[in-house]
Specification:
The protein folds into 2 domains: 141 residues, Aspartate Aminotransferase, domain 1 (Alpha-Beta Complex); 238 residues, Type I PLP-dependent aspartate aminotransferase-like (Major domain) (Aspartate Aminotransferase, domain 2, 3-Layer(aba) Sandwich), CATH 3.40.640. The protein is of the alpha/beta class. The longest helix is centred in the C-terminal third of the chain and has 24 residues. It is built from 14 helices and 14 strands. It has a 7-stranded mixed beta sheet with strand order 2-8-7-6-5-3-4, sandwiched between helices. Strands 10-14-13 form a 3-stranded antiparallel beta sheet, with helices on one face. It is globular and about 60 Å long. Helix 4 packs antiparallel against helix 11, helix 5 runs parallel beside helix 11 and helix 6 packs across helix 10. The protein binds pyridoxal-5'-phosphate. Pyridoxal-5'-phosphate binds next to helix 6.
Length: 392
């Protein structure tokens, strides 16, 4: 008897997450006894700071094991409000903040809350893989705008104007950016803010890498610009800054109407993220700046080493990323596609990377390589990759 198909049309329209599915290839190789270095997964390699772990244990002992307010623990929303005021120049009170199960759930819930069928959403390409799927699941239509290396992966005003239609509902920006490592300068954010006001659309800004930023680059929140607070949904979370990817905690900041609508979806889906984890997150925001600083210093050392080595390999041209922890080199001097090269690196060097094409059409010809790894592992990866690429 054939298998009966029970699949919703909306799910047929999306692909599995490339970055979550990829490690399966590495697992298969490992199962056959091969030692694989995984430079595909986007997370800090540091342990969660001790103070945060201790606060979670204490919260469990103190009885934070029951339901709490579905928008999130009041104490945490107050700490987020204070952080936004001091660090991001955003004045938002608790009613304008919702705590979510990671930034990813904040993004998805926000899309579900504001998009109607056929609404167009401008998304810079290459993009973080989940934006497209989330827009499609919410009934919207993703429209690509280009981030080109020749423009330092910055946005082009004329191109955006040409893509704006009556159906344009929102633009999604992400700075520091996954996968390119670009950081949008203030003038580019001002250009986007002006367009959003002139053409009356929303801005969704994913600021999850705001603290992982190098050299003279500075993070700037578009919601702090004049007239932007009410038309911006700011997304952030604890995964990257505090090395808490497995804890699953994020948040969204927007006007009260949007937050109230997100809250309805949250109440009927996840209720709220775990209570004791929210208690620990207060400590992350209030007491862990030193830990974040030393993590970013170490990541900068990794970046400086790794990008220099990539550029010596002969098959890559890699620009210096300004933030996040991804190298995004262009493949040069070989006719191999992104997929062919990443397969070659996995099979010959036993190093797992992600084809740039997984991040959109404009990622074709590139590879995304995570340099958030201990230095010894990076050195080993460099040695193995160089050896394999020399044979080409
Ligand atoms: N946004 C971007 C740009 C990311 O790179 C990631 C994770 O890789 C996320 C959101 C998801 O973060 P979280 O772990 O908080 O769901």
């Amino acid at each position: 008897m054939g298998v009966i198909e029970f699949v919703a049309e909306r799910v047929k329209a999306i692909k599995p997450s490339a970055t979550v599915a990829l490690p399966d290839k590495a697992r298969a190789l490992r199962a056959s006894g091969v030692d694989v270095i995984d430079l595909s997964e986007g997370e800090p390699y540091f342990d969660t700071p001790k103070k945060i772990k201790a606060a979670a244990k204490k919260a469990l002992d103190e009885g934070y094991v029951h339901y709490i307010a579905s928008a999130g623990l009041k104490e945490l929303r107050q700490a987020i409000s204070e952080k936004l005021r001091v660090e991001n120049q955003i004045e938002a009170d608790e009613s304008e903040i919702i705590v979510t199960v990671g930034a990813k759930q904040a993004l998805f819930t926000a899309m579900l809350s504001v998009l109607n069928p056929g609404d167009e959403v401008l998304i810079p390409d290459p993009y973080y893989v989940s934006y497209i799927a989330e827009v499609i699941l919410a009934g919207g239509k993703p429209i690509s705008i280009s981030l080109l290396e020749s423009r330092d992966f910055r946005l082009d005003e004329e191109e955006i104007k040409n893509k704006i239609t009556k159906k344009t509902k929102m633009i999604v920006i992400n700075s520091p950016h996954n996968p390119t490592g670009t950081v949008f300068p203030k003038e580019d954010l001002k250009m986007i803010a002006d367009l959003a006001n002139d053409y009356n659309f929303l801005v969704m800004t994913d600021e999850i890498y705001e603290k992982i930023i190098y050299d003279e680059n500075r993070h700037c929140s578009i919601a702090s610009f004049p007239n932007m607070k009410d038309r911006t949904i700011t997304i952030n979370g604890f995964s990257k800054s505090y090395s808490m990817t497995g804890w699953r905690l994020g948040y969204a900041v927007a006007n009260k109407q949007i937050i109230d609508n997100m809250l309805k979806i949250q109440q009927h889906s996840v209720t709220h993220p775990s209570s004791f984890i929210q208690k620990a997150a207060v400590v992350a925001l209030k007491e862990c700046e030193d830990e974040v600083k030393s993590m970013v210093e170490e990541l900068k050392r990794n970046r400086d080493y790794f990008i220099k080595e990539l550029n010596k390999m002969g098959k890559f041209r890699c620009w210096m990323p300004k933030g996040a922890f991804y190298a995004f080199p262009k493949i040069v001097d070989t006719k191999m596609s992104s997929e062919e090269l990443t397969d070659y690196l996995l099979n010959e060097a036993h190093v797992l990377t992600v084809p740039g094409s997984a991040f959109g059409n404009l990622g074709r010809g590139y590879v995304r390589i995570v340099y958030s790894k201990p230095m010894e592992e990076l050195e080993k990866a460099v040695q193995l990759m160089s050896g394999a690429l020399e044979k080409l």
